[in-house]
Design brief:
2 copies of one chain form a homodimer. By secondary structure, the first copy, chain A, is of the alpha/beta class. Chain A is 34% helix and 22% strand.
């Protein structure tokens, strides 16, 4: 039994991130991480007539790019684990329609990237698969129209609002050697601390991140300083400040070890992105682009990556409910110590 | 390696369905399977002010009923695997908010019940968990307003339309002895044969069922006659006829061995349910109620259950796309031969 705590398992059989690919939109390509992506779009429509079709095509491009970089073909892949934010996850489904691979659909909102890595690592670690693709995407224009206001409305964004990343990432997990290994998986519980402000997702998601992070440290025995980087998915500036503050009160100093994909992907001052990036594609494109490049360069040896998701829809919040959230964490290591 | 084919794995470590529970609405409680459910509601609102909250409460009641019947507490459960049809799966999320169990969210539309059993069996079979809850739900009123027309509109239903089941089922999987075992898992690919009629889901889903079923027989070496029952999730009358017809042409005679949860749950003539029941809760409530009871009574020894899902949303069909579908199959056996 590889369970080492209520929420944490240790993956005993080696599971590698063999390769990964990240594709982003125009605005993301103008941000600080521009050189880390495999493709920066010059047209966020990708030539499609609707934004939903654009996002699905974006995810498909990321999946094919990851396959290509990993030197694998569709027939080599045992499962694709994927999902996205669009109602009924059509970004993933219309991507997968054109592929010939068994598919298991996930919904974890913006936690999807690490949810897929968690399940993927268990499927390989359990001996059920040799190669698994983990993919997700988001698109600013599908998210705005579905979760907020029609694009044409030009609604004002409050300072706590985040900017949904147009981007997709795909990681090819494998039982064979790769860039780095997934060694521990800490799965989140659904946490709702009563935040009901749809324009302050960072504050809603931070308690879920804290819950999973404390479980991870307690159950693994790791300290923050055991990591080169503790990377959250898309808490953004406000959620990250809450995380660092409240984790400090619990005795965990994250101040110089934490970063957040939503803080990293945009230059907030120049790009007018308020509290930072968000969306499934935020963690996916930063992890599958910049972070895995840093592993390749030898600049990172051991990180914890924890994508966070807000699990509401706009209607249930209009019905008076607050926002339940979740965070799934995985340890990625260059080599097992 | 327990992989025996492109889409099929054999679960080597014993995985049991320890117990299960099914709760349904008023109309389902008037159908032929009325005596097989743990609870038949007398009020489909469950005392809630919105249908979404009603569905979430329904799923929660099924989860607690399964825990209770299994003699387990929340602390005994390693993961809940759940999802539903409502946008962003809020049925599952607002259920899980009140629980203290690691959660992995799934989206497989009406295939969710067997998707959750598939992943759950792998998590236990791989040594990552001892107890996993697999749950899903649907509610006629959440589905009508979201996928079709407002209830108050009173739209006419064409003969090929199915009736979304108000129901929820939860299966408690365990590494310890139970009612029956999950021995094989055949995971589906996303199949789209070009059907774009949202009122004929059976026809859209049948090709996915056929694809998975043929893979299952080829990869396991099983014949239809090896099973006491081949049970599909919610193809309904039209989809079932297509399945039997086209499988016959492929050399597999399912005529006396197949049934469909959507055909079983309603008396179509008396209950005006046209092509039969549908929704995640259709397979979930029939499997977790009637079918598991039949295993307990000794009337079933080996079945294949395969829930089918239509992976579109209404908007993408309005945008001119057809309906991609998927089917996941699991073999449930009283005792391994």
């Amino acid at each position: 039994m590889s369970r080492i705590g209520r929420q944490t398992i240790k993956i005993e059989r080696p599971v590698y991130i063999r390769e990964s690919a990240a594709i982003v939109g125009v605005k993301e390509g103008e941000g600080p991480l521009r050189d880390s992506f495999d493709v920066v779009l010059t047209d966020d429509t990708l030539g499609e007539s609707t934004w939903e079709k654009s996002e699905s095509k974006l995810q498909k491009k990321a999946v094919f790019a990851a396959l290509d970089k990993a030197g694998l073909e569709q027939k080599d892949i045992d499962y694709v684990l994927a999902g996205d934010l669009i109602n009924q996850c059509i970004g993933a489904h219309y991507c997968m329609r054109d592929m010939d691979i068994p598919f298991l659909g996930l919904y974890g909102a913006c936690s999807t990237m690490t949810e897929s890595l968690s399940i993927g690592a268990m499927l390989i670690g359990g001996g059920f698969a040799d190669n698994v693709l983990c993919a997700t995407s988001s698109h600013f224009c599908t998210a705005e129209k579905q979760f907020r206001t029609p694009l044409e409305y030009g609604g004002q964004r409050p300072p706590a609002a985040q900017w949904t990343v147009t981007g997709s990432g795909c990681a090819a997990l494998s039982s064979e050697k790769g860039i780095a290994m997934i060694t521990h998986v800490t799965s989140g519980k659904v946490i709702d601390k009563g935040i009901s402000d749809l324009t302050n997702m960072g504050a809603a998601m931070a308690p879920a991140a804290i819950d999973t992070l404390i479980a991870h440290f307690k159950e693994t025995g790791f300290k923050p300083s055991d990591y080169d980087l503790i990377l959250t998915g898309d808490l953004g500036h406000i959620g990250s400040d809450i995380l660092i503050d409240l984790m400090g009160r619990e005795g965990y100093n994250l101040r110089n070890i934490h970063n957040d994909c939503g803080k990293m992907i945009f230059d907030g001052e120049k790009q007018d992105t308020h509290a930072g990036g968000s969306g499934c594609g935020c963690c996916a494109s930063v992890l599958c682009g910049h972070i895995m490049n840093e592993f390749k360069k030898g600049n990172l040896n051991k990180i914890l990556v924890m994508a966070t998701g807000a699990l509401m829809n706009p209607m249930i919040v209009q019905q008076g409910e607050s926002i339940p959230c979740i965070a799934h964490a995985v340890t990625i290591e260059k080599e097992v110590q």
